[in-house]
Design goal:
The complex is a heterodimer of chains A (720) and B (154). With 720 residues, chain A is an alpha+beta fold. Chain A is built from 18 helices and 30 strands. In chain A, the strands form eight sheets. A seven-stranded mixed β-sheet of chain A has the order 12-13-10-20-17-18-19. A five-stranded mixed β-sheet of chain A has the order 15-23-22-21-16, sandwiched between helices. The two termini of chain A are 51 Å apart. The chains are: A alpha+beta (720), B alpha+beta (154). Chains A and B meet through helix 5, helix 6 and helix 17 of A and helix 1, helix 2, helix 3 and helix 5 of B.
Chain lengths: 720, 154
């Protein structure tokens, strides 16, 4: 059994444990390819791997665990090359700081974009291999033999000839004093024991016993709790409140203003929440009290008739469309969506004169540190970030609004740790939403029914431009709103795509699992389906014919269709209930996914019976986790397609909890089969690519069943 | 001061009677395996057993739990080891983020006590707790494994 603690250590603590002579020795592994010089010009050693006298390998993971399996896949990659068993590992979260920014040429570190495994695969292998080489060298020096005569078994260095053995725990103190070798050779794929294998999750035990510690569970001596109420209208602010009305309530410590609202601090969370409910507070609604999602949708639809920024241009789509024997056109839209992590937003902070400690569920420890430093005025190296397990992330925990609240309150009460917990209602009404998007698709065919041209106009505002404008090469082209629409693999000779940016300020928008692909795959794969029906072609066959130049896509499509034993026609089961299959194919985050959904319609009630999913992610580092992430992505996408929608009236979000923002229930769960194609292409992501194809696959099946084309989501708004 | 009996142990708690049992268990008794998810009894993350009955602890006023036996996820294992459901959850690698899983396991434990050998249909309709990561199929499989184990033991 592997031991696991999910709490972070600072680098100083990590190295300090060794210096204190507690029997822990740290291999200061400078990760080849990411040796880095920090701002002070001082050489930095990345301390990812520590080994104690018992041979326990402490691995400082730069990626957080929010369900997607990084506390298993990432250490397994390292352990493969180190030659360690998973049971020897203790996985902890790395602190913030430049030495852990191992992504994109050592410029950043976050957990998202389905980047964890693919961005660190070689780095982690080299880290493990380098550590192993140092352990071998330490043993060889002890035995006075050449290192080449030594080998390893998990946790042990062996001298082949004499059979002498020393454990990693015994060797670690010696190895830690050695120079770090460069260019250590890596293992052959054929000898992998962990990579490519369904390694069990390192966090499965603590998550079955209740011991796993999430942010909301953090226990600190003298802890106070805060309940918050934020302006119901985005951009609004607190006008007045009467703290005297609640200060005498049991346990209440203080009433404080936070950036866009008010907080009650008490000795128990329930007392804080109750007092907050009784606190008279009025908000200045600001300039946005007339915002409604309905009117924004009208603006988006109107924008589809404008000419926008060109984002794709192949051939001459205008000419081809004007000459086409047949054209079709469709307008689609998709609603605002909330993340609804099961663990509501929360954060705990403790501020003293020269130190700030923050326990924050986050998708990037550096983001937490930055916000804490800004608010406290303290230097980054005095900020300590503790990252617990996340009760879901899905893109929500990039945004540090809840962290800012906890640090703001803790700064006002130095020396007192304060835990901010949002109610589900605050969480639903103060999310950073998947943006509402509309798109117009047009296609033209020749007289034989061959597609000649496709033209796409997308309208909306993308989260990248709002949150990370530095990501955009051209500020006018924010891919995060149209990605997944244009640049299709289908061999259509003339293509044009345009973007009309329609700002949705002040509404907070953000990254929602699979980002722009979540809505654009629905538009694109529904429209491809419309095209197939327009020329009376089978939807799978129609796509296949457009993929003659794209063997990788074709194979994924064929695999899913084969798994499903694809049926073009509607059929009835033994109870007379109609069934049909729908298909969708989509590439995102470097992985190609095809899904076939079997949908039944029973007296108007939709049942998604089964989903067959084929995925080509290059190579599955952990096939069990890849399958689980496909299943997870399907549920996330299906849930949204079925019943999720955030609407706004008078500047306010109208939904508040699971009764009016329903997420997929267990009795709605389809059976899912997943097949992995190891194509040997570059590694693709896995956390998100399962989400985009499911909505169009289901809607394409519904079209066969009902003749009704679903051009906006969710399905719960329709009567079938 | 009110005395609550949680997992066979007495806790002296200072709280108002209307405080949901969930918060008494978490913040005062310090047993944080029981989770807050929605506060309206819908998601099931706060599922516990009250005198052996499955309840959503966010909906039970603290005062109503006096003189009743409370079992939380921390009280499910015995001296002989983990509950068969916990073992099944580990064997099947059910958890992803893991936040809802203590509640899922408590719901499954109540289901198996009521019916040690549930049908696939019963599992799918009686397990009503939400999971945002979408581990439902693994949950169903783990319940089946634990039920089988039960069958072999008896």
């Amino acid at each position: 059994m592997s031991t696991l603690s999910n709490l972070s250590m600072t680098r100083r603590q990590f190295l300090g444990t060794a210096a204190a002579g507690a029997g822990v020795f740290v291999l200061g592994i400078s990760l080849p390819g990411c040796a880095k010089v920090d701002e002070q010009g001082e050489g930095v050693i990345n301390a990812f791997i520590g080994i104690d006298e018992n041979g326990v390998v402490t691995f400082q993971n730069p990626f957080i665990e929010m369900g997607q399996g990084t506390y298993t896949s990432i250490p397994a990659i390292m352990a493969e090359e180190l030659d360690a068993d998973m049971a020897m590992l203790k996985v902890v979260q790395a602190p913030h700081g430049p030495e852990y920014r191992i992504m994109f040429n050592n410029t950043t570190r976050f957990t998202g974009g389905s980047f964890s495994v693919r961005s660190s695969y070689m780095t982690m292998r080299k880290a493990g291999a380098t550590a192993r080489a140092m352990l071998i060298k330490a043993a060889a020096d002890t035995w006075r033999v050449p290192p080449g005569e030594c080998t390893t078994e998990p946790g042990v260095v062996i001298h082949r000839e004499s059979g002498k053995k020393l454990t990693y725990g015994e060797l670690a103190p010696l190895a830690a004093k050695l120079n770090i070798p460069a260019d250590v050779p890596l293992k052959d794929h054929a000898s992998f024991r962990l990579i490519g294998k369904p390694v069990k999750r390192t966090d499965n035990r603590v998550k079955a016993t209740g011991e796993a510690e999430f942010g909301i569970d953090i226990k600190v001596d003298g802890l106070l709790y805060a309940a918050v109420k934020q302006s119901p209208v985005f951009g609004g602010s607190v006008q007045s409140y009467d703290q005297d009305a609640v200060l005498k309530m049991p346990g209440v410590v203080a009433v404080e203003e936070i950036p866009n609202g008010v907080a009650v601090i008490a000795d128990q969370y329930w007392r804080a929440k109750k007092a907050l409910e009784q606190l008279p507070v009025t908000f200045d609604e600001g300039d946005n009290a007339d915002f409604s999602s309905k009117s924004y949708l009208e603006k988006l639809k109107a924008a589809l008739n404008e000419s926008g920024v060109r984002v794709e241009n192949v051939g001459d789509a205008d000419k081809a469309l004007s000459e086409a024997a047949k054209t079709i056109e469709a307008v689609y839209h998709a609603p605002f969506l909330a993340h609804q992590t099961m663990e509501p937003m929360n954060c705990t902070a403790l501020v003293t004169k020269d130190h700030c400690k923050v326990w924050a569920p986050n998708q990037g420890a550096d983001f937490v540190a930055k916000v804490a430093a800004e608010i406290t005025g303290l230097k980054l190296d005095t900020i300590e970030v503790i990252t617990p397990f996340l009760g879901g992330g899905f893109g929500r925990r990039f945004i540090m609004d809840y962290t800012a609240q906890a640090v703001t309150l803790a700064k006002k009460h130095p020396g007192r740790p304060i835990k901010v917990i949002w109610t589900r209602e605050e969480d639903t009404q103060h999310d950073h939403y998947r943006p509402m998007t509309a798109a117009k698709y047009r296609a033209g065919f020749d007289a034989q029914g061959n597609p000649l041209a496709i033209q796409i106009t997308t309208a909306g505002e993308g989260p990248s431009g709002r949150l990370n404008p530095e990501f955009l090469e051209d500020p006018a082209i924010d891919e995060s709103i149209f990605e997944g629409g244009p640049h299709q693999p289908y061999g259509i000779p003339n293509k044009r795509a345009e973007l009309v940016n329609v700002p949705v300020k002040p509404l907070p928008i953000g990254y929602w699992r699979s980002v722009g692909n979540s809505q654009n795959a629905f538009f694109k794969e529904s429209f491809i389906d419309e095209m197939s029906h327009a020329v009376s072609a089978d939807p799978v066959e129609f796509r296949r014919n457009l993929l003659t130049e794209q063997p990788r896509f074709k194979k994924v499509l064929d695999t899913a269709a084969g798994m499903a034993n694809w049926k073009s026609e509607v059929w009835q089961d033994e109870n007379g209930i109609k069934h049909a299959m729908g298909v969708a194919l989509h590439e995102s985050f470097g992985s190609i996914v095809a899904q076939v959904a079997e949908v039944a319609l029973d007296d108007g009630d939709i049942r998604v019976v089964r989903v067959w999913c084929a995925v080509d992610c290059g190579f599955a580092v952990n096939p069990a986790i890849v399958k689980m992430q496909m299943e997870s992505g399907i549920v996330f996408g299906l849930s949204a397609a079925w019943s999720e929608e955030i609407t706004l009236e008078k500047g306010r979000v109208m939904q508040s909890n699971f009764h009016d923002y329903p997420i997929l229930r267990p009795d709605q769960m389809p059976d899912v089969e997943v097949e992995i194609i190891n194509s040997g292409e570059p590694l693709g992501g896995i956390g998100e690519p399962g989400t985009p194809p499911i909505a169009p696959a289901v809607c394409n099946a519904l079209f066969k069943l009902t003749g009704q084309r679903v051009r906006s989501l969710p399905l719960s708004q329709y009567t079938f | 001061m009110t005395t609550l009996m949680i997992n066979g142990k007495q806790y002296e708690l200072d709280a108002e009677d209307d405080m949901p049992l969930l918060w008494a268990i978490r913040d005062i008794a310090g047993l944080t395996g029981t989770k807050f998810g929605c506060g309206i009894g819908m998601c099931g993350a706060c599922s516990i057993h009250l005198d052996g009955e499955l309840v959503r602890s966010c909906m039970i006023p603290f005062g109503a739990a006096k003189d009743k036996a409370i079992t939380t996820i921390e009280g499910l294992a015995t001296e002989e080891g983990l509950h068969p459901l916990q073992q099944a959850w580990i064997d099947k690698d059910v958890s992803q983020c893991g936040y809802c899983q203590p509640g899922q396991i408590m719901a499954a434990a109540a289901l198996l006590r009521e019916n040690p050998n549930p049908s696939e249909d019963e599992i799918r309709t009686k397990m009503t707790n939400y999971c945002r990561c979408g581990t439902y199929l693994q949950i169903f499989e783990a319940v089946k494994q634990a039920a089988q184990f039960h069958g072999e033991q008896s």
